[in-house]
Structure formats: structure tokens, C-alpha cells
Amino acid sequence: MNRVKTLFILNIILFFTLVNSLKAFEVIRDTEIENFTNDILEILLADTNIEAENINVYFINSKQVNAFVTGGKNVFINTELIIAAEDYREYAAVLAHELAHILSGHIFRTSEELANISNKAMPIYLLGIIGLITGASEAGFAGLMVGQAAVSDTFTYYSRTQEAAADQKAVSILCKSMIDASYLSSFLNSLETIVLNTQSKSENYRSTHPLPQDRISWIQLALDNNEKCNYENDKELEKRFNLIKAKLFGFTHSYDETKAVYKLNNNQGLYANAVSSYLNGEHDKAIKYLEILIGNNNSNPFFKEIIGEIYFMKQNYREAIYFQTNALNNLGFENDLYTMMLGNYLLSSNEKKKINDSIYYLKKSIQLNRMNAYSWYLLARAYALNDNISLANYATAERYFLIGERSLSFEFALKAIKGVKENTPEWYRTYDLIEILKKEVSTNTN
After folding, report:
1. Which residue range is the domain that position 431 belongs to?
2. Residues 431, 435: Cα–Cα separation, whole Å
3. Same domain for 217 and 363?
4. How far apart, in whole angstroms, are the C-alpha atoms of residue 301 and residue 396?
5. Nearest to 382 by CA among 370, 369, 368, 365
6. The domain that contains 318 carries what CATH number?
């Protein structure tokens, strides 16, 4: 990780203690990737009784090409898998395969085993904004945060029977969704080349999936039973996917590698190089590329979000607020990250009149996702700057509760209850926290 990127991360998460950092991994939250993936899931799940919003998808920053599911409806996708996919239909095929595991009820790990693995990793946001997300102590979510090191060391292997069934069901899902299912085979063919070039036989054996050549024949059998499945691609989805790949490449690969792979003669090249230049500290160059992109498509919220973030890093809060406001308006749907970022920019401007606006957006972010611990942190700061120490203590108690610091959460809840206005939602919630934590903290103390 280069020096600028490292300083960026440390600047945002300075108040957190990194535990067992050698085995930490990065769970990437990015609105553009999440939104695109959700759109694909809606297409794939249209003929099922499961809603896309009920599938939890987590993106792991990893150079290994992999995807897997855990108990329940939880899908993990490595960033390099998205980059390795040549076509959005290959990515859709992977999602269909993982959905097949879920729809078929394949369970790969007990909650106790997952909880043990979760202790090896600390998830963070990257891409867009960085902050700690929930779950260090919550039995349900903590068990899902599987560190990449833990995955390669201890993850239960998919059985051949389950893989064959999932591949064949994935073909059925894709065909019913009018997506050419042959792209599952094409992706596996590409993956086989990657495996042969980059991994030893030992690593292949320890993969969460059998080798690609062992699966292609299973898929072909299913394709033979689905004759009408060679649908045309969706040009809009393809365009969106290529931009996502470019952005991910710029974030996860070196500056020199990005320049070599992506030229400045199309939107993908501009996007990849804008991100890479930003992380390399060349902010003015990144802004130049993004301004061209915005000129090419003024309604794209994701270009504006990144340029706003760059201005934020340059401490030009006026421009950061302007572009993030525009990004939020262009987004077309409510999003906890975008509202959190706008709240953060307003708060950082150090203008007294903007604090109330900051509180509004941060509370909105939390309404959309109460598990966003960084929004709670920012809200506590905003309340403190607004001279409302009781609510600042309450927000801090919520944050500590989410990140597993139960004693500190209890301590701040006790402080908050002395001053929070009675019969307000914050007052009731503070009492709830105290009652929840009272026994636990007492037990841990004894």
C-alpha cells in the first residue's frame, strides 16, 4: 500500500485499535459496486421467492480470484474476481452459482466456527470512505466476517456434489433470467489459466472450490438441457460493469500497472487512471480526468463522489460539499455511505451553521444503516461541536456497542442518560443499552 493511501486510511480510522493486523482484511464498501451487484441479483432472483435486498453481499479486497457463501444468505466476492471477469455475464454467472448454493440450502460452516475465524480479522471500508463497520461482538454478523487468511487456512471445502449441483442450478437461473449461461464456462476457462499460472497444486487443493476443469463438464451437461440460452448482452449493464472494473483496478493495483493496462482514450481508462492518480497523491491530475468524465456524463453520481472525496482530502470543503451534494442528488436512491460522506464534509468545514446540516445527514445515514459505526462516530463529533454533550455520549455509546467495546459503551450510556431529554428515542435507546449491557459488563468484571 503506498504512502498516500496509508495516510488516508490512518487519518480516518485513527481512533480505532487495529487488533491482529497481520491477519486483518478489507471489506470494501462502494455504492457503485453494491448498486450494480444488487441490480444483477434482482434479475437473477426474479423467478424465486427471495428478494435481492435479503442477500448480503460483501466485497473483500483480495488479489485471489474467489467467491463463497456462508450460512444464511451471505455472499463474499473477492475484488480480483470482478477484475478477472471479461464480461458482466461472467460476473452474473458467478453470482448465480453462489445464489444456487443459497437456494439449495448448502451450509458450509457452523456459527461457532465462523465466530472463531472472525476474531482474526477487522473489516474496514475502502473506496469512498473508510470507517469501522459493525459486528466485532454481534454473534450473527461477527461470524460472517471471514478473514482472507482464515479462508485459505480453515474454510470448509465445497463438496464435489454441492459444486456440481450449484453449477447446474446456476445455468438454470441464468437461462431463466435471459443471460447467456455459457459465460459460466467461459469464466471457468479463464480461471483455469489463472490457477495454472499463479497457484501451486497445494493452493488449488485448499481453494474453496474444486479446480475449474472439474466443473466445466458439469456445466456443459446443464447447457445441453437448456437449448435456448444464447441471449444477447445488455449494453448498458456492460458499460456499467466496465467502469466498475476500471475503478476497482485503479484502487487495488499499482499506479504503474494501472497506467500500463488502462490508456486515456476512453471512459474506462480515464476512470482507472483518475483513481490511481488520486491514491498516488496526484490530486490535480485525478481531478482533470474526472472533470472530463463528468463532462462526458454529467448525471453519473460516482464520478462526482470521487472528485468530491479528492477535494475533501485537499481540505477544499466547499467543493467537496458541492460535488457530494450533486452525487447524492444524481444517485436516485437513498444510501447510507453517500449521506454519511456529505455529513462528514459539512462537519469538517468547521462552519457553525453547517453543523445542524451535518447532524441531519448523519442521522439519515444511521436511519438507513444503524450498523454504520463511522456515522455514529461522526454524529458524536457533530453533537459535541453543537454543545450537546449528552447526545454526543449517546452516539459514542452506540458506536462502542457496534464495535464490541461493551464496557466503554456502558460507560458512555451511563453518562448520556443523565442529560438526554426524557421520552425521546435517544432516551429510550440509552436505557435499552444500559439494560442490555448491565449484566454482560458485570459478568466480565467478576
Report:
1. 388-446
2. 6
3. no
4. 31
5. 365
6. 1.25.40.10
